[in-house]
Amino acid sequence: MFTGIVTDLGEILSVEKIPAGIRTRIQTVYDPDGIDLGASIACGGPCHTVTAKGHGVDGSNWFEVESAAETLALTTASQWAVGQKLNLERSLAMGTELGGHLVLGHVDGTAKITKRTDHEDSVYFQFEVSRAVAPFIAKKGSVCLDGTSLTVNEAEGLLFSVFLIPHTLAVTTWGDRQEGDLVNLEVDMMARYAARLAEFTHEA
Hints:
By secondary structure, the chain is mostly beta strands. It has 2 domains: 8-90, Elongation Factor Tu (Ef-tu), domain 3; 109-203, Elongation Factor Tu (Ef-tu), domain 3. Helices cover 13% and strands 42% of the residues. The chain contains 3 helices and 13 strands, in the order E-E-E-E-E-H-E-E-E-E-E-E-E-H-E-H. A hairpin with a 4-residue loop joins strand 7 (109-118) and strand 8 (123-128). The radius of gyration is 17 Å and the shape is globular. 32% of the residues are buried.
């Protein structure tokens, strides 16, 4: 479980193909001594399990995760490359402040940036999503994009938009995002359950 509040901007050190998918080493400010093998870390949105950890010769910290076929098919992990930055968040601990919204790290798919407009005090992003995902996105509702909890400004058809403040742009990958980029999308879990409940209510 996560909150969508990014706590580190990691950098990909290596990407290795393995039989099950890919293995990625990520540089981080997180102390490896405080990370258990098997711990969950959201990497650019999708939840990943830590399979290895350590220190670099320069004293830097790193951990490794593996992405299986389903993750590669549903997310942008298939495009990960050395030097790329990733929004990171460690799993939610009891007593931790819930600053964003409850996020599972179970990505529903990708959203394409169709418009970016820079304003003096914010940046406007518009996205296009698939028809299967669009019904779960509502105006003023919550959405998790590339591991970042955001509030939907407008939603109509397959399009929705958000505004990002300068702080978010500075501490996440969002400052570099441009039109045409794909980002990982996770809809609000409450929307999922409401839709499922509506299915059974309709059948009854």
